[in-house]
DNA sequence: GTTCTAGAAC
DNA sequence: GTTCTAGAAC
């Protein structure tokens, strides 16, 4: 059975179990060890849905509770998904959620020194962390003790895949002090790279004017990667971001416009690169310049369901295989 | 994000 | 009958 756990990023205390569809109130108190008077005793109401893979978070206290950098608002509700960070109050007390299949969640804890039994270390984003076995607790909502296996390898949710790939030297095409470039694991065209900042930026929503230099550097890095491939002069490229990416960690797509790839399989793939769901890098930069942040229409995901239309001649196609056949017409003929 | 597959579409 | 999509599971 799948369980959901609320994990303190600081490792201040053991994970708190969020039973499926049960309402759990969290705030100042012995369970969280939060003593901050700005935090209400019932600051947030949490309701996990293990089937849907998220936790509904309702702000009950007056002071702001936020997810990543977005305030939920008094009496308002937001979905907390794996990979996102919940700040209980005033951007403090960070938590994340983890779904796991057993009663023994695999949790990465930073301050394993607190733990009595040290476990095998695992490589993770922030360098070496250790997973730890916690002392046994009888209470049902407390992280239970491990029984048999000696090594707990922390399971990573699929949406954290980029964070793993960008750290892997075998995946890196280029890197400097600010960014790293990797090939997309499932390229949707002959050339498909991702430019990622080392700085952990969860989503486009957290971008502010202080990120402008970085965004411009990401774009310039993408241009350089394209230039390095001198044999692709006939290929055009687009640089942009998905409005609502599946993978955590902001990444700039640098993709050739042939869309000749066996990994391009469905309508969602196609529309994510050929409709306004694909936010042009320069437009994102301009948006941050002019408005201080990036805003995305609420119903932007509807674009993923749009009819299949050729990005060059705009002709509509009825199926993905037909579209892929049609695209060949636009490929430059080889000399 | 991908994979798998039921059932819709042809 | 086969092809293809879309939603669940991962």
From TrEMBL:
Biased amino acid composition, Basic and acidic residues: 131-140
Domain of life: Eukaryota
UniProt EC number: 3.6.1.71, 3.6.1.72
Reaction catalysis annotation: a 5'-end adenosine-5'-diphospho-5'-ribonucleoside-2'-deoxyribonucleotide-DNA + H2O = a 5'-end 5'-phospho-ribonucleoside-2'-deoxyribonucleotide-DNA + AMP + 2 H(+); a 5'-end adenosine-5'-diphospho-5'-2'-deoxyribonucleoside-DNA + H2O = a 5'-end 5'-phospho-2'-deoxyribonucleoside-DNA + AMP + 2 H(+); a 3'-end 2'-deoxyribonucleotide-3'-diphospho-5'-guanosine-DNA + H2O = a 3'-end 2'-deoxyribonucleotide 3'-phosphate-DNA + GMP + 2 H(+)
Subcellular location field: Nucleus, Nucleolus; Nucleus, Nucleoplasm
Gene Ontology cellular-component annotations: nucleolus; nucleoplasm
Record protein name field: Aprataxin
One Pfam family per UniProt: DcpS_C
Top EC category: hydrolase
Gene3D superfamilies: 2.60.200.20, HIT-like
Segments for region (Disordered): 110-141
Primary location recorded for the protein, binned into one broad class: nucleus
Short sequence motif Histidine triad motif: positions: 249-253
Chain's role: DNA-binding protein involved in single-strand DNA break repair, double-strand DNA break repair and base excision repair. Resolves abortive DNA ligation intermediates formed either at base excision sites, or when DNA ligases attempt to repair non-ligatable breaks induced by reactive oxygen species. Catalyzes the release of adenylate groups covalently linked to 5'-phosphate termini, resulting in the production of 5'-phosphate termini that can be efficiently rejoined.
Ranges where the HIT domain occurs: 159-264
Composition bias, Polar residues: 121-130
UniProt keyword list: DNA damage, DNA repair, DNA-binding, Hydrolase, Metal-binding, Nucleus, Zinc, Zinc-finger
InterPro entries found in the cross-reference section: FHA_2 (IPR041388), FHA_APTX (IPR047289), Histidine_triad_CS (IPR019808), HIT-like (IPR011146), HIT-like_sf (IPR036265), SMAD_FHA_dom_sf (IPR008984), Znf-C2HE (IPR032566)
GO molecular function: DNA 5'-adenosine monophosphate hydrolase activity; DNA-3'-diphospho-5'-guanosine diphosphatase activity; double-stranded RNA binding; mismatched DNA binding; single-strand break-containing DNA binding; single-stranded DNA binding; zinc ion binding
GO biological process per UniProt: single strand break repair
